[in-house]
């Protein structure tokens, strides 16, 4: 599933009012005015029992949501389903791992990133 397909799926199943972020470089991808959910989308081509979130993205989402009284949601698709995490509820354990600089632009240089692995068993399946 590509990000646009995930967006359309969310519109059809649970966020009929979903709108995309104004900037493509935003720290979140979309927003539901009705539910006050500010949402980051990730699409994985392989299913993992834990899904990665970067601390920089997490911190930006939490700060923006705190400022606007929104709820930060992290939605991941894998071949096994669509998983939604309320970032106010999860308790991330942060660690440093080496990952590609970017995934979208195929920059394979490895850099240290502070990340957490969120267990899909703690997610809502949508």
How does this structure look, described?
This protein is α+β, with helices and mostly antiparallel strands and 126 residues long. The protein is 20% helix and 39% strand. It is built from 2 helices and 9 strands; from the N terminus they run αββββαβββββ. A hairpin with a 2-residue loop joins β5 (71-78) and β6. It is globular.
- Tell me about the biggest sheet? 6 strands, mixed
Class per helix and strand makeup: alpha+beta
Gross geometry:
globular
The CATH topology label of the domain at 3-50 and 57-90 is Trna Endonuclease, Chain: A, domain 1
The percentage of residues in β strands lies in 35-45%
Tally of contiguous helical segments? 2
Question: What can be said about this structure in brief?
Answer:
With 126 residues, the protein is α+β, with helices and mostly antiparallel strands. Helices cover 20% and strands 39% of the residues. Strand 5 (71-78) and strand 6 form a beta hairpin.
Question: How do the strands and helices of this protein lay out in sequence?
Answer:
Elements: H1 3-13, E1 19-20, E2 30-32, E3 37-43, E4 50-54, H2 55-68, E5 71-78, E6 81-86, E7 95-100, E8 110-119, E9 124-125
Parallel strand pairs: 3-5
Antiparallel strand pairs: 1-2, 2-3, 4-8, 5-6, 6-9, 7-8
Q: What are the salient characteristics of this protein?
A:
single chain; 126 residues; alpha+beta; Trna Endonuclease, Chain: A, domain 1
